[in-house]
Write a structure and sequence with these properties.
193 residues; rod-shaped; mainly alpha
């Protein structure tokens, strides 16, 4: 490819501006090369003759062709780098958007879970209070029934039992102390027999 670019550049040899550009580039490159050899490699300094015009045009045209190819390659590499970084940034943006969406969904689910947990606790407390109230009512009904004669304890000095179905965390609300039943009085006819 470099050769095809070089032959295309060589067609412009006849143009004076192009010739001057090629000659000045080649002469400057030649002087820099000689200066570096003298300074770095320690060669003795000698008088530097400029390049012939034909050789300078060939070297300058070669430099321009290689510079053009290098420039095109650099632009292609930079373009590919930019394109890949852009696609990576798009991918990163998509991942960030998906993460934000998942975090929002997680927050909504956590809020729902908190609300359900709070609702459960409220219902649990209400049911527990209702259960305690029903237990208290049932105990009172059993106690009233025992006192009212539903169960008879004739001829025994036993007091009426107190029934408690569930322990109370608070004090008992039944009025008054439990009274023992009076001992049966012997009938006058019982002594005679």
């Amino acid at each position: 490819m470099s050769y095809s670019v070089l032959t295309g550049v060589c067609n412009y040899y006849r143009h004076p501006t192009f010739r001057n550009l090629c000659v000045s580039l080649a002469q400057r490159m030649y002087k820099t090369e000689i200066g570096l050899r003298t300074n770095l490699l320690g060669e003795p300094a000698k008088h530097v003759r400029p390049l012939s015009e034909t050789k300078a045009i060939d070297n300058g045209a070669n430099l321009l062709a290689e510079g053009f190819l290098f420039g095109v390659a650099a632009v292609l590499i930079l373009g590919e780098t930019w394109r890949s970084s852009r696609s990576q940034s798009k991918r990163r943006d998509n991942v960030n958007d998906q993460l934000e969406s998942l975090q929002e969904k997680l927050q909504v689910l956590n809020d729902r879970l908190d609300a359900a947990s709070q609702d459960f606790e409220t219902r649990w407390t209400e049911e527990k209070l209702r259960n305690d109230e029903l237990t208290r009512i049932l105990e009172r009904v059993v106690e009233i029934g025992l006192r009212g004669g539903w169960a008879e304890f004739e001829d025994t000095p036993l007091p009426l039992p107190m029934i408690q179905l569930a322990p109370y965390p608070h004090t008992r609300t039944t009025p008054g102390p439990v009274q023992e039943p009076e001992a049966p009085t012997p009938s006058p006819n019982a002594n005679e027999s």
